[in-house]
Design a protein that fits this description.
Metal Binding Protein, Guanine Nucleotide Exchange Factor, Chain A, alpha+beta, 200 residues, eight-stranded mixed sheet, globular
């Protein structure tokens, strides 16, 4: 069954809703890549990553994400001039999600922005269990205790299917992150300089 999940930053300034969420409408992954860990360090707030440096992400079509309040607080950083657009609340530094470009119908919502407990459900019930734990070679410590049965191939297959469906259905717009006409980011990205990136 699909549910609408409230979206809210920690300070309550930035809010919205993820529409029609179910395990089948997205792809939940835990990513341990260096860039996701660097983003967490850039925001400098607890609770973004797990004990091994992994970020819990739910990949979904942009049209399913609506920001309804506090959009002036929406901020963006890119770890390099070709890096992903990484969105967050400029007031409290709650991470919002990641996007590749305005032409790719994809947003990876980060768990700390999803208020899935608002209707009494735990994360696994709302989003399904993670399909995969990716880039674990960059994990901090040993993640061998993670649940079995997850596969990068399943993640790739699900992501490709979701992207294909979004392209065919036009679910890349409306977008909470890019202007639908000009494709300009709704917040001017701060692009980190190489020395800033290295420091993270």
């Amino acid at each position: 069954m699909r549910h609408d999940i409230p979206l809210r930053c920690d300070c309550g300034t930035l809010a919205g809703v993820a529409l029609g969420v179910a395990p089948s409408t997205g792809c939940r992954v835990v990513c341990y890549c260096r860039d996701c860990q660097a983003f967490a360090r850039f925001l400098a707030r607890p609770g973004i990553t797990d004990e091994w440096g992994g970020t819990d992400i739910f990949q979904i079509a942009p049209a399913r994400v609506r920001l309804t309040a506090g959009t002036d607080a929406l901020s963006c950083v890119r770890l390099s001039d070709k890096g992903m657009h990484r969105w967050y609340c400029g007031e409290c530094k709650t991470p919002v999600g990641n996007t590749l470009s305005p032409r790719i119908p994809f947003v990876g919502l980060i768990h700390s922005f999803m208020d899935h407990r608002n209707d009494g459900r735990e994360r696994d019930a709302a989003l399904g269990k993670p399909l995969g734990y990716v880039q674990t070679k960059f994990a901090v410590g040993n993640v061998s205790s993670r649940p079995r049965g997850t596969s990068p191939l399943r993640v790739i297959a699900r992501s490709v299917r979701l992207l294909g469906t979004a392209w065919l259905s036009g679910a890349g717009s409306p977008s909470a992150f890019f202007d639908d006409r000009t494709h300009v980011p709704r917040a001017t990205p701060r692009v980190l300089q190489p020395d800033e990136r290295r420091a993270l």
